[in-house]
Design brief:
The protein is α/β, with parallel strands linked by helices. The chain is built from nine helices and 15 strands. Helix 3 crosses helix 4 and helix 3 packs across helix 8. The longest helix is centred in the middle third of the chain and has 18 residues. The chain binds NADP nicotinamide-adenine-dinucleotide phosphate (NAP). InterPro entries: ADH-like_N, ER, GroES-like_sf, NAD(P)-bd_dom_sf, Quin_OxRdtase/zeta-crystal_CS, YIM1/Zinc_Alcohol_DH_Fams.
């Protein structure tokens, strides 16, 4: 089958377009003939990582096919799978580590529990585009009991994740949404349902941390850079909830390790966890909620997300589409950190 793969870690130069054997499936898997894949920053962050080869090869067996999101048609069904049949239109997000099967190839072996049927009225391109970002946004927001009208600030609202999260928060949960992006993306944020679009470069009373309102929730895919600013400036209500989305800089770091969440995040996670656990048994007052979010593939949840696309409550936002052979250029575009919605690949 045609596939993009890499056998050593590094820049886009390690990506090769060639042929690889088609995967064979296990009893709990389906073989998907992929029509569209979508890219996410974690693809290139793990690809760049120069870690010792015995760890790299354990986490990312080689040749490694990059990318996690796909949508296509079921070509074969494992012996134990009862939920799908050959010919079904499906979408899925693959696990990040310990598999060589990414989605930039004609066929992928997918655990049936990670896949969802795509409703007839939803295109396979749109289904691939919303998978990982949809799961991340919905899993993050599941940490908070919100009511319509509560206020939320969503950072990087114009990116792949943010452009989905803004819509979900506004149109599915009925929240009052503020979102950050650069000034050129103000109209775009508003078209997604943001009530307030904030230029993250603004200063003083126009800045996102100016203090009014105190948000009930902050969903932060810029946490590697913004966590201290969020927690230190009173921008979040004292009873609010910080959704720290595991993140890192787009710019390549030393040894392929980008500036990312570190000790500060783990200390905060422990501090707020212990404080709120103590409050729940009557020791001290309950404080701010704090969650550290990393996406988990989940076919059932993905089906719920696709149902909202079918209803027209949310839509896939496509920034650019590339062909499989153009994967290098597609990643170079995503790696600028300026994508406006999702970058998708037609297989
Ligand atoms: N933990 C998880 O499970 C998970 C899941 C998905 C994503 N993530 C992480 O979340 C981050 C965002 O992912 P993504 O898919 O949305 O990436 P993306 O599509 O590449 O995001 C690009 C967007 O980020 C915006 N941006 C850049 N710098 C910003 C800043 N300082 N403040 C506000 N917005 C800024 C840009 O807006 P302008 O062009 O207007 O500047 C651009 O539209 C990445 O680090 C990714 O790895 C984590």
């Amino acid at each position: 089958m045609s596939a993009i793969s890499y056998s050593s870690h590094g820049s886009t130069e390690v990506l090769e377009f060639g042929t690889l054997p088609q995967p064979s499936i296990k009893a709990n898997q389906i073989l998907v003939h992929t029509e569209y894949a979508a890219l996410n920053p974690c693809d290139f962050k793990f690809r760049r990582m120069e870690i010792p080869s015995f760890i790299a090869d354990f986490l990312f067996p080689k040749p490694k096919i990059p990318a996690l999101d796909l949508a296509g048609v079921v070509a074969e069904v494992g012996a134990d799978v009862t939920t799908f049949k050959v010919g079904d239109r499906v979408a899925a997000t693959q696990p990040i580590v310990h598999t060589r099967w990414g989605t930039l190839s004609e066929y992928s072996a997918v655990d049936a529990s990670h896949a969802a049927l795509v409703p007839e009225s939803v295109s396979l391109r749109d289904a691939a585009a919303v998978s990982l970002v949809g799961l991340t946004a919905v899993q993050a927001l599941a940490n908070v009991a919100t009511s319509p009208g509560d206020t939320i600030l969503i950072h990087a609202g114009s990116g792949g994740l943010g452009s989905f999260a803004v819509q979900w928060a506004s149109k599915v949960l009925g929240l009052h949404v503020s979102a950050t992006a650069s000034a050129k993306n103000k109209d775009f944020l508003e078209s997604l349902g943001a009530d307030v679009a904030i230029d993250y470069r603004a200063e003083g009373s126009d800045a996102w941390d100016a203090g009014e309102p105190e948000y009930d929730v902050i969903l932060d895919p810029m946490s590697y850079a913004y966590e201290s600013r969020v927690l230190g400036t009173g921008v979040l209500s004292p009873t609010g909830h910080y959704l720290n989305i595991a993140s890192s800089n787009w710019a390549p770091g030393k040894g392929g390790i980008e500036e990312a969440n570190g000790l500060r995040t783990y200390l905060n996670l422990a501090y707020y966890g212990i404080k709120n656990a103590a409050a729940s048994v009557g020791l001290g007052e309950k404080g701010m909620g704090y969650s550290f979010v990393a996406i988990v593939p989940d076919g059932e949840m993905l089906a719920g997300i696709l149902a909202q696309l079918e209803k027209g409550a949310v839509r896939a936002v496509i920034d650019k589409q590339f062909d499989l052979a153009e994967a290098k250029q597609a990643y170079e575009h995503l790696e600028t950190g300026r994508a406006k919605g999702k970058v998708v690949i037609k297989i």
